[in-house]
Amino acid sequence: NDAPVAVADAAAVKEDTNTLADPNPVSGNVLSNDTDVDNGDTHSVSAVNGSAGNVGNDLVGTYGTLHLNSDGSYSYTLDNGLASVQQLAEGATVTDVFSYTNSDNHGGSSSANLTITITGTNDAPVAVADAAAVKEDTNTLADPNPVSGNVLSNDTDVDNGDTHS
Fold this sequence. Notes:
By secondary structure, the protein is mainly beta. The protein has a domain at 9-119: Immunoglobulin-like (Sandwich), CATH 2.60.40. The protein is 2% helix and 32% strand. A hairpin with a 3-residue loop joins strand 4 and strand 5. It is rod-shaped.
């Protein structure tokens, strides 16, 4: 018996999106691109991240949750509630990597990685109300007229590196 050859898999998901073009969760099958020279062997995922107990169960990664079944089908759901996901600047990427083991029905096995690439989107800044006071008919150090300040100083944006005007 020759062991199967597990081939690396990849998928991608965008922060704060769930469309036909950019679904969340993202799904696929890690066994679909794996090979085995032995005709007739059947294959299954026997371990995820080194543990048989992770197969068919939710496995929390750095940025989301993977559910990988023994038949190779998987679903990865990005956790958009994480600050580390929301802070991604538009176009910035991070990855969640999971290993899996492909085993055949004759005891052969091989491992590869499933890499999920997460791409950041532009989150809108949050403007906070500003206030200033001025007294009529005054212009002293204690009561300056006009008043000055910066209306952007208390506004926020979760995206790293964004500038505002």
